[in-house]
Amino acid sequence: MITKNEAEHLAHCLESVRDLVDEVVVVDTGSTDGTVAIAEAFGARIGRFQWCDDFSAARNASLSLCTGDWVLSLDADEAIDSLDHRKIRQVVDHPVGKGKQEPQGFVLLSRNYLMDSLSRVFDQQAQPNRTPYREGSQFPYYADIPIFRLFRRLPHIKFEGRIHERADTFLERRRLPIGRLDAVIHHYGKLDLEGERVKRAYYLELAERDAAEVPGDANRQFYVMAQAELLQEWDKVLGAGLAVMKLQPGGGPPAVPLTVANAYQQKGMHDKALPLLLQVVGNQPAHPQAVSGLAFSFLALGRGEEARPYLERACAVHPINPFIRITLCYLEEAAGRLREARAHLRASIEGNPRDLNLRQILIKLDLRHGLAAQAAADAMEALRALPGAGGGLWHALAAGFLLKEGHLGPGRAVLDLGLASFPENADLRKLAAALPATP
């Protein structure tokens, strides 16, 4: 591990692997909190590293202190559930068979926990959290990404890249086999939205420096593309993404054409986005981001009905996926089918009752079409599922409707709850000002 000011997360990470690993190596890059003391309390071997804008350099310093036959690389905001300990031990304890090559490293799943159904990680859209793991069970969504983190400590093996450092490239160049392991690294870092935002510009700078140092490297261009998308620098996304598509056979993984297509869409160039999206859907017909993106471009080009078969096919595979249902809702609304639009949202809400986005979109759909009573009813239902949410809009709709219908007691109660949570909300304050004084 490498660390810097990770006192908030480190103990949880190390506790999660206490019964799995034989040694813990932590190289610190300049913490000013209790990070090092926590690592020492877990019996870690501690190293120090002067930060030099290079994650691989720091990671290689930690690798140099390892003594085990195998290395599991983790970040402080990650954890391994005890359900997967046995799987990991089985592959590292398995002796190398004579006459055949065993994997020298393994790709695991990085499970990125999310609070928002519209979030994604690379090309993976958030999906409802329905898993047997205790780790992360309190969070509503996640997105899984394959990640190389477990490997044999071979002579001279090292990480490469200033950012998004990788050791699998070492094995790939030597044609050493890499396996896949059905084990999960639970990652909580995406929940820190402000922390993620603050790092974006710095990470793009590192990615661009990395790509400039090794021209023609598709992996480095990929990370420029990915970091530029987070900053919505669409010209940089296109430059790097198109470079990856030229450098890699088949245009690279689906995340590449999807990201390039998104950049074209953001620039209003839907005719250029469509072929890329159709390319992905041709290989993965139910890919939520691809089919939803396809619908967005078809709608923008006045060809919305052409998206219907793609969306309906994806919906059959992912019946409660919020992203697909929301896109179907917009498609039906554009076609003037309000009842069908609401039905898609209701179907997804049944499977995801605590999804704030779905509730908000449904209420705003009601309001756009003048369904005031329905919006109030949906707002009251939303408040029962998510008390204190809605930014004041839900309370104002529910309280306003109750007061208008003469239900003063319940209306005042909802209004008071709204003002307690959102005292500056203008609609709530207006309702309160219009009420007669309480005797």
Average pLDDT reading: 94
CATH architecture of the domain at 2-190: Alpha-Beta Complex
* Fourth-tier CATH superfamily name of the domain at 2-190: Spore Coat Polysaccharide Biosynthesis Protein SpsA, Chain A
| CATH-defined fold name of the domain at 2-190 | Spore Coat Polysaccharide Biosynthesis Protein SpsA, Chain A
Structural class: alpha/beta
Describe the largest sheet: 6 strands, mixed
Number of helices: 19
Which stretches of 5+ consecutive residues score pLDDT under 50?
none
Kindly provide the radius of gyration, computed on alpha-carbon positions and rounded to a whole number of angstroms: 25 Å
**Percent range for β-strand residues:** 5-15%
How would you describe this protein?
This protein is of the alpha/beta class and 439 residues long. The protein has a domain at 2-190: Spore Coat Polysaccharide Biosynthesis Protein SpsA, Chain A (Alpha-Beta Complex), CATH 3.90.550. The protein has helices at residues 10-16, 35-41, 55-63, 85-93, 168-173, 193-213, 218-230, 234-247, 255-266, 270-283, 288-300, 308-317, 322-334, 338-351, 356-368, 372-385, 393-404, 408-421, 426-434, and strands at 2-3, 25-28, 45-48, 70-72, 78-79, 105-114, 120-121, 124-125, 127-128, 141-152, 178-187. Strands 4, 5, 6, 9, 10 and 11 form a six-stranded mixed beta sheet that branches. The protein has a three-stranded parallel beta sheet with strand order 1-2-3, with helices on both faces. β1 (2-3), α1 and β2 (25-28) form a beta-alpha-beta unit. α6 runs antiparallel to α7 (218-230), α9 packs parallel to α11 and α14 (338-351) packs antiparallel against α15 (356-368). The longest helix is centred in the middle third of the chain and has 21 residues, at 193-213. The chain is globular. The model has no long low-confidence stretch (mean pLDDT 94).
